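The protein record quoted in full:
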Amino acid sequence: MDSQVLPLRLPLEKLEADKYTVAESILVIPSGWPEGKIKVFLGIMDEVCGSYIRPEVSGLEQDENRLIYIGNIDVKNFNN
């Protein structure tokens, strides 16, 4: 599967202990994008090791890069 990494940087030094933290990212589907499904994965990168951290949670689908599958986005072309 071809992939593209879009940087969303949240340094752990900025997190506060015992506080709920949200990191949001906006995905904009360009006009003319082909209809179909986009698989969405989530990953937490350890930049020191150069790999994604594998969370200790059961029941999640992970790929070979330790990215966690979180669902699909159904793309419809509304420009027709």
Observations:
- The longest strand covers residues 68-75.
- Residues 1-80 form one domain.
